Structure formats: C-alpha cells, structure tokens
Amino acid sequence: MADMTANTKVFDHYNGDDVYEYSLTNKHGVTLSTLSFGANWYELLVPTAAGKQNLLLNFPHVADYAEKNPYLCMSIGRTAGRIGKGQFTINGADYQVDQNEGKNDLHGGFHGFNSYNWDGRIEDNHIIFTKNVTSDMDGFPGNMAVTITYTLTEQDEVLIDYSANADADTLFNPTNHAYWNLNPGDVTVGNHDLYINSTDRLTLADDKIPTGELTPVKGTPFDFSQTASLGKAIANLQDIPEKGIDDVYVLNDHKADEPVATLSDPDSGISVDIFSERNAIVCFTANGFKADEPYIGKTGQPHVGVALESQQAPNAVFDPNYGNITVGPNEIKHVYTKYHFSY
C-alpha cells in the first residue's frame, strides 16, 4: 500500500454536523472519494490526457443531495427498491414499514441509509463507514449494526462490501445508487453503450412492484444481452410513461470473474465493468432529472446519468426462490459489488 495516498477533510456542514470527505488515490492516479453523509460515493476520478475526469454525478453541497436528489450515489438500505404497501413477513410475523412513495416503501423508507451521517475512517486502502441503525430510527424490526467498506485497489477496482448483523430477524438488501456519466463534456449518456448479462426483466405493476412474472427482453429496446446503444434504446422508449429505462434485470448465471454489466463510452474509451454475486441489477436512465439539479460539470436534464444497482431481486421480499434477504441474531451477512475501470 506504499503507493496509496489517503486524505480526510471536512466537506460541508449539514443539520449542525460536519460532513467528511474520505479519499484514496492509487499508483495510477485513480481517486475514490466518499462522503460521510449517506456513505455517499462522491467521485471516481480517472487520469486522462486532458486531466482527471470524474465518472459519477455529484453535487457541490450536502443540502443539494438532501433536497434535490436524495438517492444520488448514496448507500441504500436497509432494502433497495420497493416493498409493496410497506408490508412483509419474516418467519410468520407480519411487519409494516414506511410508505414513502405512495403506498410503497422505497429504498428503506423516510430514514434509509442515505439519510444518515455515518461514522467514517480510512484504514490502508479501505474507507469504512459504520452505523447502528435502530428500529426506532427507521421502523424496521431489529437493531442493525451496519458496516459499508469501500476498497480501492492498485488494479483500478473499487469494491463495496456491505455487512450487517441484527438483534432480531430483519431485512438487508443494500446497494449503491451510483449514477454514471463517462463523458468528459456536458452531455447525456445517450452516446454510451451498455451490456447487461440478462435475458429477462421483472414484470412490474404500474406502481413498480413486481408481479412475480418475467418479461423477456429479446427483440425489445430493453435488450442489452449483447452490447447495445443506450441512446437508441431511450429513443425507442419515448412512447412509454417512463420515457426511458427504470427496470429490474434478472441476471443470468455467471462466474465470479464475469461482469454482470459493462457501461462504456466509445468516444473516450472509458468503461466500467460491474461484478456481483447477486441476482439482479436495476438500470435507471435518470428519466425525470430536472434543470434545477446543480450537478458539477453537467446540466440537470433527463438521461444525464445512468444508475446500475446490483441487488437481490425485490421479489425476494415475498418469494424465497429469489433469495434470502433476511439477517438475524448470531449472523453476519456480507454482500458486495465490484467495479473495474478502464480509461
């Protein structure tokens, strides 16, 4: 780790608290920066001929995140995605949690991981965030000790490990809501190419809750099972309410060293490979982003970024065939996502 440099500084102040920025830079000049508020992934800087380029959407102030786009590049939990009517059952016991999007629970409710100022520190090439999330704080059963660890390697990889244990049975299906734009200039992601190792997406009701069925992507604008143009797909979806992609892709079986998704910019040659052991990835093309969102170096507009969020399929809340997203006493659960950058 001799070539790895680290930096900690106060980034901003919010609700009377200092918000810290934690940064690591490897020997190639790749910089990973995070914020304590929301355990946020603030920057991923890669060296280019024109200087360092940030691949993530970001804001200049914490208030912009809290007030304009509360999930932007945030850690999401206890559960990513939607829980229908905010209701679920574990071991025969029924629970009701926040209904913060219509009748549904979205991204952990009103007090999800994105809303907390986390305790942070740097150890070697790791940025470590910790938080004790109590049932009184977010309404989920059980008090949960959560650790989110960002690791930067000398192979230009970022690994995000999420771990938790709880004193009662509860749900744990976290992710990071990173929004990517690989362009050096102020343009949308319409020129990007995308690959997702998936041949089916979840069939969703009008309120975005899975019906339990699958919809094949072959022959539709949603098909990225072979690398395809993101801009062309968006253009072909202008007749649907979303006017873009906001879908859960069920991942095909894959080996650990095979990317589940690859986002690339043919113009700059920059690409991001995403690796995950989980069974789904959400693709969202920022369809409703607005002009009043003050991104650094990018104009707020639809399709200014694309989120690719690895998680367990939200069907797992009601269908054990989609995996076990519970964690309970005497158990520590780890899930991870790895990103590899080429530039």
Keywords:
mainly beta, Beta-galactosidase, Chain A, domain 5, 2 domains, nine-stranded antiparallel β-sheet, six-stranded antiparallel β-sheet, 3 helices, 28 strands, EC 5.1.3.21, Gal_mutarotase_sf_dom
Could you name the CATH topology of the largest domain?
Answer: Beta-galactosidase, Chain A, domain 5
Radius of gyration in whole Å, from Cα?
Answer: 19 Å
Structural class: mainly beta
Strand count: 28
Pfam family, one: Aldose_epim
Family: Belongs to the aldose epimerase family.
EC number: 5.1.3.21
Enzyme class: isomerase
Question: Overview of this structure, please?
Answer:
- The chain folds into two domains: 5-179 and 319-342, Beta-galactosidase, Chain A, domain 5 (Distorted Sandwich); 183-316, Distorted Sandwich (Beta-galactosidase, Chain A, domain 5), CATH 2.70.98.
- It contains three helices and 28 strands.
- It has helices at residues 62-68, 135-138, 230-235; strands spanning 5-14, 17-25, 31-35, 40-48, 51-54, 75-76, 82-83, 87-90, 93-96, 105-106, 119-123, 126-133, 144-152, 157-166, 170-171, 175-176, 179-180, 193-196, 198-204, 210-216, 228-229, 246-251, 261-265, 270-276, 280-284, 306-311, 326-327, 333-342.
- The strands form seven sheets. A nine-stranded antiparallel β-sheet has the order 11-12-13-14-28-24-23-18-21.
- The longest helix has 7 residues, at 62-68.
- The radius of gyration is 19 Å and the shape is globular.
- The chain starts with a strand and ends with a strand.
- The mean pLDDT is 97.
